[in-house]
Protein backbone atom coordinates (compact mmCIF):
# COMPACT_ATOMS: atom_id res chain seq x y z
CA UNK A 1 0.00 0.00 0.00
CA UNK A 2 1.33 3.49 -0.82
CA UNK A 3 2.05 5.82 2.09
CA UNK A 4 -0.63 8.41 2.88
CA UNK A 5 -0.11 11.35 0.46
CA UNK A 6 -0.54 15.02 1.00
CA UNK A 7 -4.14 16.16 0.32
CA UNK A 8 -4.70 17.07 -3.32
CA UNK A 9 -5.60 20.66 -4.15
CA UNK A 10 -7.81 20.15 -7.24
CA UNK A 11 -10.68 18.54 -5.32
CA UNK A 12 -13.08 21.02 -3.67
CA UNK A 13 -13.50 21.02 0.09
CA UNK A 14 -16.52 19.25 1.53
CA UNK A 15 -17.70 18.48 5.04
CA UNK A 16 -18.83 15.09 6.34
CA UNK A 17 -17.41 11.59 5.67
CA UNK A 18 -15.66 10.97 2.41
CA UNK A 19 -16.33 8.30 -0.12
CA UNK A 20 -14.55 6.68 -3.08
CA UNK A 21 -16.62 5.25 -5.91
CA UNK A 22 -14.72 3.25 -8.52
CA UNK A 23 -16.83 2.98 -11.68
CA UNK A 24 -16.38 -0.15 -13.82
CA UNK A 25 -17.77 -0.05 -17.36
CA UNK A 26 -17.71 -2.35 -20.37
CA UNK A 27 -15.67 -1.18 -23.39
CA UNK A 28 -18.22 -3.07 -25.53
CA UNK A 29 -21.09 -0.80 -24.57
CA UNK A 30 -21.51 2.76 -25.85
CA UNK A 31 -19.71 5.01 -23.31
CA UNK A 32 -22.77 7.10 -22.44
CA UNK A 33 -25.01 4.11 -21.74
CA UNK A 34 -24.40 3.96 -18.01
CA UNK A 35 -26.73 2.66 -15.33
CA UNK A 36 -28.78 5.04 -13.22
CA UNK A 37 -26.58 4.21 -10.23
CA UNK A 38 -23.46 5.11 -12.21
CA UNK A 39 -24.78 8.49 -13.34
CA UNK A 40 -25.97 9.18 -9.80
CA UNK A 41 -22.50 8.44 -8.40
CA UNK A 42 -20.91 10.74 -10.97
CA UNK A 43 -23.40 13.53 -10.27
CA UNK A 44 -22.94 13.25 -6.50
CA UNK A 45 -19.13 13.28 -6.68
CA UNK A 46 -17.18 16.40 -5.74
CA UNK A 47 -14.62 15.36 -8.32
CA UNK A 48 -14.23 12.69 -11.00
CA UNK A 49 -10.82 11.30 -11.83
CA UNK A 50 -9.44 9.22 -14.67
CA UNK A 51 -6.09 7.96 -15.90
CA UNK A 52 -7.13 8.91 -19.43
CA UNK A 53 -7.64 12.28 -21.03
CA UNK A 54 -10.56 13.77 -22.96
CA UNK A 55 -9.75 11.64 -26.01
CA UNK A 56 -11.02 8.54 -24.19
CA UNK A 57 -14.65 7.79 -25.21
CA UNK A 58 -16.01 7.29 -21.69
CA UNK A 59 -14.37 10.50 -20.51
CA UNK A 60 -15.86 12.31 -23.50
CA UNK A 61 -19.33 11.01 -22.60
CA UNK A 62 -19.07 12.22 -19.00
CA UNK A 63 -17.70 15.62 -20.04
CA UNK A 64 -20.47 15.85 -22.63
CA UNK A 65 -23.04 15.51 -19.83
CA UNK A 66 -21.72 18.69 -18.22
CA UNK A 67 -19.43 17.10 -15.60
CA UNK A 68 -15.72 17.78 -15.12
CA UNK A 69 -13.18 14.96 -15.31
CA UNK A 70 -9.65 15.40 -13.96
CA UNK A 71 -6.88 13.50 -15.69
CA UNK A 72 -4.62 12.17 -12.94
CA UNK A 73 -1.06 11.52 -14.09
CA UNK A 74 1.24 8.84 -12.74
CA UNK A 75 0.96 5.19 -11.74
CA UNK A 76 -1.45 3.22 -9.56
CA UNK A 77 0.05 4.68 -6.37
CA UNK A 78 -0.54 8.21 -7.67
CA UNK A 79 -4.11 7.40 -8.65
CA UNK A 80 -4.86 5.92 -5.24
CA UNK A 81 -3.24 8.91 -3.54
CA UNK A 82 -5.55 11.24 -5.43
CA UNK A 83 -8.57 9.22 -4.35
CA UNK A 84 -7.67 8.36 -0.76
CA UNK A 85 -6.44 11.82 0.22
CA UNK A 86 -9.62 13.41 -1.06
CA UNK A 87 -11.82 10.86 0.71
CA UNK A 88 -9.83 11.25 3.94
CA UNK A 89 -10.66 14.96 3.82
CA UNK A 90 -14.37 14.19 3.65
CA UNK A 91 -14.91 14.52 -0.09
CA UNK A 92 -16.80 12.24 -2.44
CA UNK A 93 -14.73 11.25 -5.45
CA UNK A 94 -15.40 8.93 -8.38
CA UNK A 95 -12.94 7.16 -10.67
CA UNK A 96 -13.55 6.10 -14.27
CA UNK A 97 -11.77 2.80 -14.86
CA UNK A 98 -10.27 2.40 -18.35
CA UNK A 99 -10.84 -0.32 -20.95
CA UNK A 100 -8.08 -2.52 -19.51
CA UNK A 101 -9.91 -2.74 -16.18
CA UNK A 102 -6.93 -1.19 -14.35
CA UNK A 103 -6.23 -4.36 -12.32
CA UNK A 104 -3.56 -2.65 -10.22
CA UNK A 105 -5.99 -0.05 -8.90
CA UNK A 106 -8.75 -2.62 -8.43
CA UNK A 107 -6.35 -4.71 -6.34
CA UNK A 108 -5.66 -1.71 -4.10
CA UNK A 109 -9.39 -1.04 -3.77
CA UNK A 110 -10.02 -4.69 -2.88
CA UNK A 111 -7.39 -4.46 -0.15
CA UNK A 112 -9.15 -1.42 1.25
CA UNK A 113 -12.49 -3.21 1.29
CA UNK A 114 -11.08 -6.15 3.30
CA UNK A 115 -8.51 -4.46 5.56
CA UNK A 116 -8.96 -4.05 9.30
CA UNK A 117 -9.50 -1.51 10.66
CA UNK A 118 -11.49 -0.13 7.78
CA UNK A 119 -10.67 3.43 6.65
CA UNK A 120 -12.94 6.19 7.91
CA UNK A 121 -14.13 6.89 4.39
CA UNK A 122 -16.27 4.55 2.30
CA UNK A 123 -14.98 2.60 -0.71
CA UNK A 124 -17.34 1.17 -3.30
CA UNK A 125 -17.11 -0.59 -6.67
CA UNK A 126 -20.01 0.25 -8.99
CA UNK A 127 -20.73 -1.49 -12.31
CA UNK A 128 -21.78 1.25 -14.67
CA UNK A 129 -22.54 -0.97 -17.67
CA UNK A 130 -22.74 -4.65 -18.48
CA UNK A 131 -21.95 -6.72 -21.54
CA UNK A 132 -24.96 -7.83 -23.55
CA UNK A 133 -24.99 -11.29 -25.22
CA UNK A 134 -22.63 -11.25 -28.18
CA UNK A 135 -20.62 -8.30 -26.86
CA UNK A 136 -17.32 -10.18 -27.12
CA UNK A 137 -17.79 -10.29 -30.89
CA UNK A 138 -16.85 -6.60 -30.80
CA UNK A 139 -13.51 -7.63 -29.30
CA UNK A 140 -12.98 -10.06 -32.17
CA UNK A 141 -13.60 -7.32 -34.72
CA UNK A 142 -11.17 -5.01 -32.93
CA UNK A 143 -8.45 -7.64 -32.64
CA UNK A 144 -8.87 -8.66 -36.28
CA UNK A 145 -8.61 -5.01 -37.35
CA UNK A 146 -5.39 -4.59 -35.40
CA UNK A 147 -3.89 -7.78 -36.80
CA UNK A 148 -4.74 -6.74 -40.34
CA UNK A 149 -3.02 -3.39 -39.81
CA UNK A 150 0.05 -4.53 -37.88
CA UNK A 151 0.81 -8.22 -38.57
CA UNK A 152 2.82 -8.88 -41.79
CA UNK A 153 1.32 -12.35 -42.25
CA UNK A 154 -2.26 -11.19 -41.79
CA UNK A 155 -1.67 -8.29 -44.17
CA UNK A 156 -0.65 -10.67 -46.96
CA UNK A 157 -3.70 -12.91 -46.79
CA UNK A 158 -6.45 -12.98 -49.40
CA UNK A 159 -9.77 -14.77 -49.73
CA UNK A 160 -8.01 -17.32 -51.91
CA UNK A 161 -5.08 -17.93 -49.53
CA UNK A 162 -7.43 -18.43 -46.59
CA UNK A 163 -9.79 -20.82 -48.41
CA UNK A 164 -7.90 -23.94 -47.27
CA UNK A 165 -8.07 -22.82 -43.65
CA UNK A 166 -11.80 -22.29 -43.90
CA UNK A 167 -12.18 -25.86 -45.17
CA UNK A 168 -9.85 -27.27 -42.49
CA UNK A 169 -11.64 -25.46 -39.68
CA UNK A 170 -14.99 -26.67 -40.97
CA UNK A 171 -13.88 -30.30 -40.86
CA UNK A 172 -12.24 -29.86 -37.47
CA UNK A 173 -15.53 -28.45 -36.18
CA UNK A 174 -17.38 -31.48 -37.58
CA UNK A 175 -14.88 -33.76 -35.86
CA UNK A 176 -15.50 -32.00 -32.55
CA UNK A 177 -19.23 -32.57 -33.01
CA UNK A 178 -18.63 -36.25 -33.77
CA UNK A 179 -16.55 -36.76 -30.62
CA UNK A 180 -19.06 -34.99 -28.41
CA UNK A 181 -16.25 -33.00 -26.77
CA UNK A 182 -17.91 -29.66 -25.92
CA UNK A 183 -14.67 -27.91 -24.98
CA UNK A 184 -13.14 -28.96 -28.29
CA UNK A 185 -16.26 -27.81 -30.12
CA UNK A 186 -16.08 -24.44 -28.39
CA UNK A 187 -12.48 -24.01 -29.55
CA UNK A 188 -13.19 -25.08 -33.13
CA UNK A 189 -16.23 -22.81 -33.41
CA UNK A 190 -13.95 -19.96 -32.39
CA UNK A 191 -11.49 -20.89 -35.13
CA UNK A 192 -14.35 -21.04 -37.62
CA UNK A 193 -15.65 -17.67 -36.44
CA UNK A 194 -12.18 -16.23 -36.96
CA UNK A 195 -12.37 -17.19 -40.62
CA UNK A 196 -15.62 -15.23 -40.99
CA UNK A 197 -14.08 -12.19 -39.30
CA UNK A 198 -10.88 -12.49 -41.36
CA UNK A 199 -12.65 -12.71 -44.72
CA UNK A 200 -14.91 -9.82 -43.75
CA UNK A 201 -11.91 -7.67 -42.82
CA UNK A 202 -10.22 -8.41 -46.13
CA UNK A 203 -13.41 -7.43 -47.96
CA UNK A 204 -13.46 -4.17 -46.00
CA UNK A 205 -9.98 -3.35 -47.30
CA UNK A 206 -11.33 -3.90 -50.82
CA UNK A 207 -14.32 -1.65 -50.00
CA UNK A 208 -16.60 -4.56 -50.91
CA UNK A 209 -18.41 -5.07 -47.60
CA UNK A 210 -17.81 -5.12 -43.83
CA UNK A 211 -18.46 -7.58 -41.04
CA UNK A 212 -21.51 -5.47 -40.14
CA UNK A 213 -22.84 -6.01 -43.67
CA UNK A 214 -22.34 -9.76 -43.24
CA UNK A 215 -24.12 -9.78 -39.88
CA UNK A 216 -26.85 -7.47 -41.16
CA UNK A 217 -27.55 -9.66 -44.17
CA UNK A 218 -27.95 -12.83 -42.15
CA UNK A 219 -30.15 -11.09 -39.57
CA UNK A 220 -32.43 -9.80 -42.31
CA UNK A 221 -32.53 -13.24 -43.94
CA UNK A 222 -33.42 -14.97 -40.68
CA UNK A 223 -36.22 -12.51 -39.99
CA UNK A 224 -37.49 -12.75 -43.56
CA UNK A 225 -37.49 -16.55 -43.59
CA UNK A 226 -39.14 -16.91 -40.19
CA UNK A 227 -42.46 -15.12 -40.71
CA UNK A 228 -44.02 -17.45 -38.14
CA UNK A 229 -41.76 -15.81 -35.52
CA UNK A 230 -41.40 -12.25 -36.75
CA UNK A 231 -44.61 -11.99 -38.77
CA UNK A 232 -48.16 -13.27 -38.83
CA UNK A 233 -47.69 -16.60 -40.62
CA UNK A 234 -48.71 -19.76 -38.75
CA UNK A 235 -46.42 -22.80 -38.64
CA UNK A 236 -47.74 -25.73 -36.64
CA UNK A 237 -44.59 -27.88 -36.76
CA UNK A 238 -41.04 -28.14 -38.07
CA UNK A 239 -42.24 -29.43 -41.45
CA UNK A 240 -44.33 -26.29 -41.95
CA UNK A 241 -41.36 -24.13 -40.98
CA UNK A 242 -39.16 -25.90 -43.53
CA UNK A 243 -41.81 -25.57 -46.24
CA UNK A 244 -42.15 -21.83 -45.58
CA UNK A 245 -38.38 -21.48 -45.68
CA UNK A 246 -38.08 -23.20 -49.06
CA UNK A 247 -40.97 -21.20 -50.54
CA UNK A 248 -39.47 -17.88 -49.44
CA UNK A 249 -36.01 -18.96 -50.56
CA UNK A 250 -37.28 -19.94 -54.01
CA UNK A 251 -38.96 -16.55 -54.42
CA UNK A 252 -35.74 -14.78 -53.38
CA UNK A 253 -33.33 -16.76 -55.54
CA UNK A 254 -35.44 -17.05 -58.73
CA UNK A 255 -33.29 -19.99 -59.82
CA UNK A 256 -33.62 -21.47 -63.29
CA UNK A 257 -32.78 -24.99 -62.04
CA UNK A 258 -33.35 -26.88 -58.81
CA UNK A 259 -29.65 -27.77 -58.87
CA UNK A 260 -28.51 -24.15 -59.04
CA UNK A 261 -26.61 -23.07 -55.94
CA UNK A 262 -25.51 -26.55 -54.84
CA UNK A 263 -21.72 -26.44 -54.24
CA UNK A 264 -20.16 -29.30 -56.20
CA UNK A 265 -17.20 -29.31 -53.79
CA UNK A 266 -19.38 -30.93 -51.11
CA UNK A 267 -18.32 -34.43 -49.99
CA UNK A 268 -19.96 -37.02 -52.24
CA UNK A 269 -22.55 -38.30 -49.73
CA UNK A 270 -23.54 -34.77 -48.70
CA UNK A 271 -23.69 -33.76 -52.37
CA UNK A 272 -25.93 -36.73 -53.19
CA UNK A 273 -28.20 -35.89 -50.26
CA UNK A 274 -28.48 -32.29 -51.42
CA UNK A 275 -29.20 -33.20 -55.05
CA UNK A 276 -31.83 -35.78 -54.10
CA UNK A 277 -33.47 -33.29 -51.77
CA UNK A 278 -33.69 -30.61 -54.44
CA UNK A 279 -34.87 -33.03 -57.12
CA UNK A 280 -37.38 -34.95 -54.99
CA UNK A 281 -40.37 -33.47 -56.80
CA UNK A 282 -38.94 -34.07 -60.28
CA UNK A 283 -37.56 -37.60 -60.13
CA UNK A 284 -39.68 -40.76 -59.88
CA UNK A 285 -39.60 -42.58 -56.56
CA UNK A 286 -38.31 -45.72 -58.25
CA UNK A 287 -36.13 -44.87 -61.30
CA UNK A 288 -36.29 -47.30 -64.22
CA UNK A 289 -33.40 -49.72 -63.72
CA UNK A 290 -30.80 -50.04 -66.45
CA UNK A 291 -27.74 -52.21 -66.68
CA UNK A 292 -24.68 -50.37 -65.24
CA UNK A 293 -21.85 -49.88 -67.69
CA UNK A 294 -19.15 -50.99 -65.24
CA UNK A 295 -18.39 -51.64 -61.56
CA UNK A 296 -17.81 -47.95 -60.85
CA UNK A 297 -21.28 -47.06 -62.09
CA UNK A 298 -22.80 -50.01 -60.22
CA UNK A 299 -21.25 -49.00 -56.91
CA UNK A 300 -22.15 -45.37 -57.53
CA UNK A 301 -25.80 -46.32 -58.06
CA UNK A 302 -25.81 -48.44 -54.91
CA UNK A 303 -24.37 -45.60 -52.88
CA UNK A 304 -26.98 -43.24 -54.30
CA UNK A 305 -29.68 -45.75 -53.36
CA UNK A 306 -28.33 -45.84 -49.80
CA UNK A 307 -28.43 -42.04 -49.65
CA UNK A 308 -32.04 -42.17 -50.85
CA UNK A 309 -32.85 -44.69 -48.11
CA UNK A 310 -31.17 -42.46 -45.55
CA UNK A 311 -33.28 -39.48 -46.63
CA UNK A 312 -36.44 -41.59 -46.37
CA UNK A 313 -35.44 -42.62 -42.84
CA UNK A 314 -34.57 -39.05 -41.87
CA UNK A 315 -30.87 -39.87 -41.44
CA UNK A 316 -27.97 -37.67 -42.55
CA UNK A 317 -25.88 -40.12 -44.62
CA UNK A 318 -22.68 -38.11 -44.24
CA UNK A 319 -22.95 -38.03 -40.44
CA UNK A 320 -24.04 -41.67 -40.33
CA UNK A 321 -20.94 -42.81 -42.20
CA UNK A 322 -18.68 -40.56 -40.12
CA UNK A 323 -20.13 -42.01 -36.92
CA UNK A 324 -19.57 -45.56 -38.14
CA UNK A 325 -15.98 -44.74 -39.15
CA UNK A 326 -15.36 -43.21 -35.72
CA UNK A 327 -16.61 -46.41 -34.09
CA UNK A 328 -14.30 -48.46 -36.31
CA UNK A 329 -11.38 -46.16 -35.48
CA UNK A 330 -12.05 -46.67 -31.77
CA UNK A 331 -12.01 -50.44 -32.24
CA UNK A 332 -8.72 -50.23 -34.14
CA UNK A 333 -7.08 -48.10 -31.43
CA UNK A 334 -8.35 -50.50 -28.76
CA UNK A 335 -6.83 -53.45 -30.64
CA UNK A 336 -3.53 -51.57 -31.11
CA UNK A 337 -3.39 -50.92 -27.37
CA UNK A 338 -3.97 -54.58 -26.57
CA UNK A 339 -7.54 -54.12 -25.42
TrEMBL record:
Task: Identify the SUPFAM superfamilies for this entry.
Answer: all-alpha NTP pyrophosphatases, Tetrapyrrole methylase
Q: Name one Pfam family in it.
A: MazG
Q: Which GO terms describe its molecular function?
A: methyltransferase activity; nucleoside triphosphate diphosphatase activity
Per the record, the GO terms for biological process are:
dATP catabolic process; dGTP catabolic process; dTTP catabolic process; dUTP catabolic process; response to stress; TTP catabolic process; UTP catabolic process
Membrane-spanning residues: none
Give the InterPro entries listed for this entry.
Answer: 4pyrrol_Methylase_sf, MazG-like_dom, NTP-PPase_MazG-like_N, NTP_PyrPHydrolase_MazG
Which part of the chain is the NTP pyrophosphohydrolase MazG-like domain? 157-230
Protein name as annotated: MazG family protein
Q: What is the organism of origin for this protein?
A: Kribbella sp. HUAS MG21
